[in-house]
UniProtKB/TrEMBL annotation:
It comes from the Bacteria. This is Class I SAM-dependent methyltransferase. SUPFAM superfamilies: S-adenosyl-L-methionine-dependent methyltransferases. The keyword Methyltransferase applies.
Length: 281
């Protein structure tokens, strides 16, 4: 069923999404529980999980002293967490209010970070230098229409021998009807260039009602994701699929450590996330 699949040009969709994400910032500043970062040892649950998967593929299994570029960093909670793990961090996001919130958080915590306002699809032109690690995680590439362009930015940002890491919601999960009482497919798994149009007054974190309620996302199959990375010249080192996700995709999901999962009887029926580690040779 494609009732919310629409034709829209990238510039219009991007501008609509930007208004929505700008408006979410104060809601997320409240909803992300930033006071937890007052503990100097605290890192976000997202980064705590990601480090388990990423570090085995880094020299000395550590981010210590590594230059890291965090694409689509939003308000910087994961970027700050990566800095606490030892990286020299640069956060990139298209939302100026989000970056102001990120900078405020980092300065309050005494974390050294560089913040760059740019679309991820133009990141190479906006960001100075090369990086040992390019990182992106959770709720990211569905907002992008062109994964080939995305992958070429990643390769151009990486030093030779550098590592790319992504964990995100699984496209099989995103094809499910989030309101169904069973695991029922509703949305397209494969992309065809059209966007999925959404109209929601709330966000996944924080309280309040949005004025800019409309957003656009694009479905990307695993084959499309892998194909873009491989065509750009990256070598795949690791692939995994997980049964938990950091937000409640469906009201039927139950809370588990570091996120949400389907009820136990259904947990092994469908993946919720995927993880890819790749390298620029």
């Amino acid at each position: 069923m494609d009732e919310n699949r629409v034709e829209i040009d990238w510039a219009s969709a991007r501008e609509t999404n930007l208004r929505n994400w700008n408006e979410r910032v104060p809601m997320h500043v409240e909803g992300y529980e930033l006071q937890k970062f007052d503990d100097p040892e605290y890192v976000s649950d997202v980064v705590a999980d990601d480090l388990v998967a990423l570090l085995p593929f880094l020299p000395a299994q550590s981010l210590r002293g590594r230059d890291l570029c965090h694409l689509q960093c939003h308000i910087g909670t994961d970027t700050v967490s990566l800095a606490r793990a030892g990286a020299r961090v640069t956060g990139v996001d298209f939302s100026a209010p989000a970056l102001r919130a990120a900078k405020t958080l980092a300065e309050r915590l005494g974390v050294d970070a560089t913040w760059i306002e740019s679309d991820v699809l133009d990141a190479r032109a906006a960001v100075t230098g090369e990086f040992d690690v390019v990182y992106t995680s959770i709720g990211t590439i569905g907002w992008l229409h062109d994964l080939d362009r995305w992958a070429t930015q990643i390769v151009a940002l990486l030093r030779p021998g550098g590592t790319f890491y992504i964990r995100d919601g699984h496209p099989a999960l995103f094809a499910l009807d989030e309101f169904s009482e069973t695991l029922t497919t509703r949305y397209a798994y494969f992309g065809d260039g059209r966007a999925l149009e959404w109209d929601q007054e709330s966000s996944y974190a924080g309280e309040g009602t949005l004025v800019n309620t409309r957003t656009y996302e694009w479905p990307h199959s695993l084959s499309e994701i892998f194909g873009a990375l491989l065509r750009a010249g990256l070598r795949i080192l690791h692939f995994d699929e997980g049964t938990t996700i950091p937000w409640q995709f469906s009201s039927r999901m139950v809370e588990v450590p570091h996120g949400f999962a389907w009820p136990e009887a259904e947990r092994n029926l469908i993946p919720c996330t995927y993880t890819i580690v790749a390298r620029r040779d």
